[in-house]
Write a structure and sequence with these properties.
The complex is a heterodimer of chains A (about 375) and B (about 260).
Chain A: E1 5-10, E2 13-20, H1 22-25, H2 28-31, E3 40-45, E4 49-52, H3 54-66, E5 69-74, H4 78-89, H5 103-137, H6 144-154, H7 159-183, H8 190-228, H9 231-237, H10 242-281, H11 285-295, H12 298-324, H13 330-362
Parallel strand pairs in A: 2-3, 2-4, 3-5
Antiparallel strand pairs in A: 1-2
Chain B: E1 6-17, E2 20-31, E3 35-40, H1 46-53, E4 61-66, E5 69-70, H2 76-83, E6 86-89, H3 101-112, H4 117-130, H5 147-158, E7 165-169, H6 177-194, E8 197-201, H7 205-210, E9 214-219, E10 222-227, H8 229-232, H9 238-241, H10 247-257
Helix pairs in contact in B: 3-4, 3-5, 4-5
Classes of the chains: A alpha/beta (about 375), B alpha/beta (about 260).
């Protein structure tokens, strides 16, 4: 295959050689811009032309049109001439461009979309609640198998990662506290620090974040894919309520699993703190547990577990909600999955902040 | 414009999935410039055969020669060069959902040439007009298109690089009769315009009668017969008779005759 080339061989004659195809064109399309030709009739000599494809014909055609040249094809192989004739018969039309939005319009669309999403989320929560109430009236319809399966996948299988994360977090909290407490000779207060921090804040929060990344995303992806493959529509036509089969078991499963995971995270987190306290501050396990038992009350544990329950609802609902907002394509599944994780972590932290405000007012 | 030069030759191709034998000694030859159809019942391995031709799947044994090269022994670079010489239209379109239709059609050109973006867009629009899609369809995303438009857009991407060979997997499946007739017409036009060799997998009797030069019938894990529809109509294997004897088949034949 020889590369495509064009040379001026006489006043009004240009000779085309080589293969005017995608692999043969190379940089010719850019070099053509420098070749000038006066408007009018020219002969295009095509005896040396090996091949021309649509791309080649377009490159040539554009060059001719820009210089207002009317070509006469001479000695072109018949098949190539036909393609060239077809391309030159096509009128030059301005390219349709997608309508660009002004910044103001974009801001408006962003606001309206945000508002609509908030309304849709409320509607989704309402529908789920109504479905849950219907289910409560007919408890036999609760799909326990699905719930248990979801608890196993979302809860039991998350035990190692949650435990490890909480353990490391306990070490970090104790280490950061140890240095400060040592200055004041208040070493033993590391027990209070680790205990309150883990039980009330860190254990529920880290568990919820792990579950949002693990289960929330998979809920969104699962429901999104089922929408794309019309499985959800099939469910509706078979008289199965998708909310009842897809959403409620997941919400129930997380509402059970997340508080339990939090208790487990409490244990490993406090253990992490205990290890660090012994290494850094010479507080023995026995001493640590003794003070832990006297200083910390059941209320702290319950507050943490209660928060975890609310976080579970947030993660499950947002994951399912974003899954149901998928429309059309694989691309959309990926986008909704990402949104579900970002949004549920965001809302979990917002909810946590609200809890802090409320608890401080109630002096809990 | 059918010649006697084979562009595709399969010899003794066997395909097995575990203990399930899909193909046993399949021999096929497709000549340059013809429209060649592969038919057969569901599960007879038509699509698997097509996937083996376009190097998406390797047969268990046997050799496949495409455009003069044995695809079993090709180096990475050679197989890439070979892949550019054919276009494939998938059953469900296979269009990239994150790109607009115009970007989908322009993608092969963008990948394999150094042309300017606006020229590529213009070429893509032209290819879309060739398959009968309006220019504004180019700005849409694949999930906004109807089934017939999706097939057309997919065909348009398959011919983006002006291939020598075109593979079509069920080009008319899932279309209403009017759109299916439109696709028949389209395949014929592409064939005369570019002098393409077309290999297609189909169940569509009208397509078989009106567009295809030769037909290979797959069944019992092998090629039962190859020939024009007229030739096949004289054979009396039960699977082949199924393409001629029921009322729908007769109607398709009558329509082709008129």
């Amino acid at each position: 295959m020889t590369p495509a080339a064009i040379t001026q061989t006489a006043e009004r004659e240009w000779t085309l050689t080589g293969s005017w195809t995608v692999p043969g064109l190379g940089e010719l399309a850019h070099e053509l811009g420098a070749k000038s030709c006066n408007p009018g009739d020219v002969v295009l000599e095509g005896a040396g032309l090996e091949a021309i494809d649509t791309a080649g014909a377009w490159v040539l055609q554009r060059w001719l049109r820009q210089r207002k040249v009317v070509p006469r094809l001479s000695h072109w192989p018949p098949r190539l001439e036909k393609l060239m004739a077809l391309v030159s018969a096509h009128p030059e039309e301005p390219l349709l461009q997608p309508t660009a939005r002004s910044p103001l319009e974009r801001l408006g669309k962003f606001t309206v979309d945000g508002w609509q999403q908030a309304v849709a989320l409320l509607a989704f929560i309402g529908e789920s609640a109504a479905a849950a109430l219907r289910l409560l009236r007919h408890p036999a319809r609760i799909r326990w198998r699905t719930v248990l399966r979801n608890i196993q996948i979302g809860g039991f299988e998350a035990l190692p990662i949650t435990g490890l994360m909480a353990f490391l977090l306990g070490i970090v909290v104790a280490y950061q506290g140890a240095d400060q407490l040592r200055h004041y000779g208040a070493n033993i207060f590391v027990v209070d620090l680790v205990g309150y921090a883990m039980l009330r804040e860190f254990a529920p929060l880290i568990t919820a974040i792990i579950i949002a990344g693990r289960s929330g995303s998979s809920y969104a992806a699962q429901i999104g894919t089922m929408l794309v493959t019309e499985e959800v529509d099939a469910m509706r036509t078979l008289g199965i309520e998708p909310l009842e089969l897809l959403v409620l078991p997941k919400v129930m499963a997380l509402a059970i699993a997340l508080p339990l995971l939090t208790v487990f995270a409490d244990v490993t987190g406090v253990f992490g703190g205990m290890v660090m306290a012994r290494v850094q501050l010479d507080i023995g396990f026995h001493e640590f547990i003794d003070r832990f038992g006297r200083e910390l009350h059941g209320a702290s544990l319950l507050i943490g577990v209660g928060k975890a329950w609310v976080f579970a609802l947030i993660v499950a609902i947002i994951g399912c909600f974003q899954g149901f907002r998928t429309h059309g394509s694989a691309d959309s599944v990926g986008r909704q999955t990402t949104i579900s994780v970002v949004q549920s972590i965001f809302l979990v932290i917002v909810a946590d902040a609200l809890f802090s405000v409320v608890f401080s007012k109630l002096e809990l | 414009m059918v010649t006697t030069e084979p562009v595709l030759r399969m010899s003794k191709v066997c395909t097995r999935f575990g203990s399930h034998v899909v193909h046993q000694d399949v021999n096929l030859e497709v000549l340059r410039g013809e429209v060649f159809a592969i038919v057969g019942g569901s599960g007879s391995g038509k699509t698997v055969l097509l996937r083996e031709m376009v190097m998406l799947q390797r047969p268990t044994s046997g050799s496949i020669e495409m455009l003069g090269a044995d695809i079993g022994v090709l180096a990475e670079e050679e197989s890439l060069a070979l892949r550019k010489r054919w276009g494939v239209m998938f059953q469900h379109g296979g269009l990239f959902s994150s790109l607009t239709v115009r970007e989908n059609v322009g993608l092969p050109l963008r990948e394999h040439s150094t042309l300017d973006d606006d020229l590529i867009d213009a070429i893509a629009d032209w290819k879309l007009s060739l398959v009968g899609l309006a220019a504004d369809a180019g700005l849409k995303f694949p999930d906004e298109l109807s089934g017939g438009m999706l097939k057309r857009a997919s065909l348009s991407r398959a011919i983006a690089l002006d291939p020598e060979l075109l593979f079509l997997d069920e080009p008319t499946s899932g279309l209403d009769p009017a759109s299916a007739a439109g696709v028949d017409e389209l395949i014929r036009r592409m064939h005369t315009l570019y002098g393409l060799t077309i290999v297609l997998v189909t169940h569509d009797l009208d397509l078989l009668w009106q567009v295809c030069d030769r037909v290979a019938v797959l069944g019992e894990a092998r090629v039962l017969a190859t020939g024009s529809m007229e030739d096949l109509s004289h054979l009396d294997h039960p699977i082949i008779r199924g393409y001629f004897d029921d009322p729908r088949a007769r109607k398709a034949r009558d329509r082709a005759a008129t």
